[in-house]
What does this fold into?
Amino acid sequence: MTSKPPTHPVDTLQEHEDEVNRLKEDLGDDNEVNLQLPRLDIARRDLVKASALGAAAGLTGLSGCLDLLNDENGTDRDRTNGNGVPDHHVPPGELDDYYAFLSGGHSGDIRVYGIPSMRQLMRIPVFNTESARGYGFDDKTKAMLEETGGYTWGDTHHPRVSQTNNDYDGEYVFINDKAHGRMARINLKYFEVDAIIDIPNQEGTHGACGRLPDMDLVYGVGEFRAPVPNDGRDLDDPAAYASTFTAIDRESFNIEWQVMVDGNLDNTDSGKNGRWAFASCYNSEEGVTEPEMTRDDLDWVSCIDTLAVEDAIEAGDYEMLNGVRVVDGRQDSPLNAGDNPVVRYVPCPTNPHGVSVTPDGQYAIASGKLDPTCTIIDIDLLDEVDDPADAVVGQPELGLGPLHTAYDGRGHAYTTLFVDSQVVKWDIEAAVEAEPGSDAPVIEKIDVHYNPGHLIASESYTADPEGDWLLVLNKLSQDRFLPVGPIFPENDQLIYIGDDEAGMQLVKDTPTYPEPHDATIVSADKIDPMPIYDPEDVDAEFIRPEDAEIIREDGRVHIKMHSTRNQFSFPDITVTEGDEVTFTVTNTETQQDIIHSLAIPNYDVQLALAPQDTREATFIADEPGVHWMYCAYFCSALHLEMRSRLLVEPA
Ligand code: K7E
Ligand code: CUA
Ligand code: CA
It folds into this structure.
């Protein structure tokens, strides 16, 4: 690249074009294919992309580019440097080792981070609308949100990545909506939501996970007890309310069955071998006020035998409620009377919160919240003991406010202490050996800032965690960042746990928009998203330039058009006031990262169009006048000129 500052845009264009052509020549014709670096596939007259390449070439030279390619997923980088201090710096141009999927809480979305850089790579809108990605602005996603309640927000808590054989398969992320009792599925082929279901007979779908080893079922559990069905009956009779445990088919995303339980259901996790699911209950009192819900010394963990539930359904032992087969798993249900009960209620100290299963599938560990202990349930014992309480094999005292527990695969557990603002590392087997209430299993504690909720370790939900990074999602950030007004960011902290001798090391603070609750950290090589759309996957007519047409019929106008640098098919389109107008728009580009949009601001339309994607928008043209339509993605040097007019003639 020349160091001379460019003087005129046209000169700049020419300069970059020359640079690209020279580079292409240097590489030779088939080098692009060998390199598999799509970024080198530069189109002519493409200022933005050309300058990016020019900069890369100028800084690193081509050999640097090749090194980067060989390390495409970044996972083979050595993170230790001999001092026990982890190398968490990811230099410009290098890629992270892991994806982290974090819930956005009441923002309603999912955030994608790179680990260990903690760079935010993307946000995936789920229950919210999002103009940057056109989500909720095109006919299809709009209908998906409308058909599942028409709400404009949600409360996402527990993102779980799909697994096959107890390992992440990189296909989906499942995410709950605590606010409206919904579950959504994000397809990682495109990093976008492809299904949402509104769960009947359930208020406040909080905990979420899937039946392991293969996640054939996705579980959502109801935190808020309510009448079932909630149709006006039993309004002020809380004893008649119930919580339900819901199983959804991974592929069809239909509800397979529900189990009605006593108490409520807060967090959940699955055993590893296809049988047990666990959910914490903090409201065994079945109260509706805080004093009522904290009255008793003991609550419980509901252990659901999903195979026994399926046997009950097979035998016809269910009730059809709101179109769902509901099995009665309450304590006095006949289905719990025999020696194959559908739900076992394992008592534990007051108001437990998180429950998570160890990587080896042996224990389910419930965090005490109002009690300073965690309760360790031996899963194999559930079948053998007469009294479910006898399945409890350990109860270490850890500190104040234990909320959630994660694993490193080396026999250690890491538990957040909300009240103490700490993470405690402890030894699981030592806790099973020790007397209940002993703090001997505690290995070390580290301060976090402040009041941690969830924590998650790399690959912690699989049978084989990586044991290097721990992400702690703190609820309060107080003095950690420049003040930005009275609504503070949260503080997501990265802790290195890969060196047992050196101990836990805090390496990074990351401010984040409220409010992450949980995350899943997946090795980068297990996720392989598409760089552009495959039109076969798109549920709309692909409009090539020669297919462009305007069809007028009985007050309906259907505009089929394409978009490419730097134009839409039509410079102007005339319709009549009151017409129902449908746009079908294809981005016919084949080069990755060249996104266009069709923005029609006066009609609140914003279609985001990735290469080879087609989206549709329908509205009534009820405002006469000139309405500029433009492309909102900065796609090329002539991006600003990429616009056309919608002319609405008065009726
Ligand atoms: Cu603790 Cu929804 Cu997992 Cu928040 S829940 S932290
Ligand atoms: Cu297309 Cu900007
Ligand atoms: Ca309670």
Notes: Residues 1-10, 29-76 have pLDDT under 50 and may be disordered. The CA atoms of residues 160 and 408 lie 18 Å apart. The chain has four domains: 9-68, 78-194+396-529, 199-359, 537-649. The first strand starts at residue 98 and ends at 103.
